[in-house]
Design brief:
- This protein is an all-beta fold.
- It has a domain at 51-111 and 146-167: Immunoglobulin-like (Sandwich), CATH 2.60.40.
- Helix content is 0%, strand content 43%.
- It is built from no helices and 11 strands.
- Strands 1, 2, 3, 6 and 11 form a 5-stranded mixed β-sheet that branches. Strands 5-4-7-10 form a 4-stranded antiparallel β-sheet, with no helix packed on it. The chain has a two-stranded antiparallel sheet with strand order 8-9.
Length: 168
């Protein structure tokens, strides 16, 4: 859900292919054989207008969720846009900067904790989306799933503000 937009006016460096193309179709292949040295290759990194994406993460009761990890990922098989990640503030707000034009997937992952209960289940939390324990064992590689929500975001030439991600 988008509330409003505003101009930010900044720029950021973007993925650049030799000799200065913004996509693979304009790139030139450089062949280098084993033991060969290639010199005199020069190209300039391209830049593009940069914008902010900001908003807030709430639960299904519209209560803010602090400490959630928010990740902005470009859509497509070979995403050319910039993405980013941030944690929400205690009031549920977040801001991601240096975002270029494009379509993105905005995902919010809420930290979970596992409490010590009868039967010896250790207390723990989430690191990188996986549950870990403090009971003396090795952290499981895929021990659990945190709650998450997702929104589609389109950055078209202005800051995107007021994105609301609801995490059930």
């Amino acid at each position: 859900m988008f509330m409003q937009t505003s101009d930010s006016g900044g720029t950021t460096l973007v993925r650049t292919y030799y000799p200065g193309a913004l996509d693979v179709s304009g790139a030139q292949t450089i062949t280098v054989a084993a033991g060969q040295t290639v010199s005199a290759l020069e190209f300039t990194m391209m830049s593009a207008p940069a914008f902010d994406v900001s908003g807030f993460v709430v639960d299904e009761m519209d209560r803010p969720i602090g400490g959630a990890m928010v990740m902005l990922t470009p859509n497509g098989p070979e995403p050319l846009g910039t993405g980013g990640s941030a944690r929400t503030q205690p009031d549920g707000t977040f801001r991601l900067g240096n975002i270029t034009r494009g379509a993105y997937r905005l995902t919010a992952v809420v930290p979970i904790t596992v409490s010590n209960v009868e039967g010896g289940v250790p207390s723990g939390g989430v690191i990188g989306g996986f549950v870990w324990g403090t009971g003396g064992g090795v952290p499981p590689p895929f021990g659990g799933v945190a709650r998450s929500g997702m929104e589609q975001v389109m950055v078209e030439g202005a800051d995107v503000v007021g994105v609301k991600v609801i995490v059930p």
